[in-house]
Amino acid sequence: MSHPDQKIIAVYQGSFDPVTYGHLDIIRRAARLFNELVVGIGVNPEKEQLFDPQERLELLLPHIRDLPNVRAATYDGLTIDFLRQCGGQVLVRGIRDLADLSNEVKLATLNRLVGGVESVFMLANDQHVLTSSTYIKQIYELGGGDLARVAQLVPPNVARRLAEKLGRPRT
Fold first, then answer.
1. Residue 150 falls within a domain, yes or no?
2. What is the pTM of this model?
3. Do 64 and 27 form a contact (C-beta atoms < 8 A)?
4. What confidence tens digit (pLDDT) does each residue in 50-78 have?
5. How far is CA 55 from CA 21, 35, 42, 121, 160, in A?
6. Is residue 18 reached through a cis peptide bond, with omega within 30 degrees of 0 on the bond before it?
């Protein structure tokens, strides 16, 4: 158990490809719980990446500038190694549904067994339960490039970059 005056550094890791309002909600809420929050932008080898890590960092930064205890960085490799490099003690994970919970419990158990790292699960707010970076890309592409369909799920700077990457919105 931590001592009351101990500084707790948490790491919120994800691919953030692209960053969504759901991610930003977890960041803001986690920032209130911990002394410092490091947002780790990693590469998921199981997913095809739309934006490279540096682009994802640039899309995120405008939305955390007003949070003095939050910083963001890109990384390669294991999340546990990144957490240690940051001086972190705990991983923050967002949970949207039971499928997320099932996967995250397995990862949390592995992280605790292998790395001695605890995980804190934060439930998504109701309006973000169905928000997924993968779904956002699919909605944009399959919806004919209609920005209005993703505007409620991602910040304007992200919607613009989606349009640039995936093609102009239809007129």
1. no
2. 0.90
3. yes
4. 999 999 999 999 999 999 999 999 999 99
5. 17, 27, 12, 27, 13
6. yes
